[in-house]
Amino acid sequence: MPLIDHTPAPPVFYSFPESTTLCNVLTKFIAQTARETIEKKGKFTLAISGGSLPKNLSLLIERKDIEWDRWHVFYVDERVVPFDHAESNHALCQTELWSKVPIPAANIHTINEELLTAEPVDLEELADEYQSQLIEHFVSKDAARFPVFDLILLGMGPDGHTASLFPGSAQLDVDETCWVAYIEESPKPPPKRITLTLPVINHAARVAFVATGEGKQESLAITLDQPEKRYPGSRVRPARPGVVYWFVDDAASALVKYPRSDHSDPQSDKPELKL
Ligand SMILES: O=C1O[C@H](COP(=O)(O)O)[C@@H](O)[C@H](O)[C@H]1O
């Protein structure tokens, strides 16, 4: 029997002169990925980050070809603040996206609100409960025994963190049984967070990073050109057939030496991105 090669493929790196072009191509990439996945599996499961990302996805709202009722959404990470707090990733996504499209509320998998508002919050219980939601969604008798997201959308902070995985943090080195980790003292506020871990991220079918602006120049160059520094983003290497993409603008990529991939004509309806 031929051996299956699971060695991670090298990252596919797209840099766009303008962030508007980036958003245009990214939107087409997400819509195309969702369409093809729904054709094959009947549903599309996405993990989405917070921070600046949701604003960059606003073109999705205008598309008429998205079957929102087939989408299931989890959060890559969540800040432990109430859902009506400006720092909540769910609140950000709700305001920018979900309130504007016909996605059923039951398809948006938030962290448990009751546990979130308990005094004091038990972070371990919150993380375990989110892991149970992953088990319920992904693990069945005849399916994979690991969450395999169809797409994970990640951001990257100026300090090089992605999800709520910060450079040098213990949560980067959890074992394969830990799918959701908690953070008590995040270097970036708010301090308490939960996050999907690298074992989950590296099982995804596709991972797409989105990073824009000068503030990300240094961390992007370290992540892509100096993997020996083991920044969180360098450790996002999904096993084949998984692929990791970077969608960045030229302001963010100014210091990066890693080879850029050709991106398609952003006007085309079906960008020639390698899926
Ligand atoms: O705190 C967070 O930061 C990262 C990066 O955010 P950005 O605003 O610099 O894009 C984000 O991806 C993550 O979801 C969030 O919790």
Automatic annotation (TrEMBL):
It catalyses: 6-phospho-D-glucono-1,5-lactone + H2O = 6-phospho-D-gluconate + H(+). Its EC number is 3.1.1.31. Pfam families: Glucosamine_iso. GO terms for biological process: carbohydrate metabolic process; pentose-phosphate shunt. One of its GO terms (molecular function) is 6-phosphogluconolactonase activity. It is an enzyme of class 3 (hydrolase). Keywords: Hydrolase. Belongs to the glucosamine/galactosamine-6-phosphate isomerase family. 6-phosphogluconolactonase subfamily. Hydrolysis of 6-phosphogluconolactone to 6-phosphogluconate. This is 6-phosphogluconolactonase. The lineage of its organism: Eukaryota, Fungi, Dikarya, Basidiomycota, Agaricomycotina.
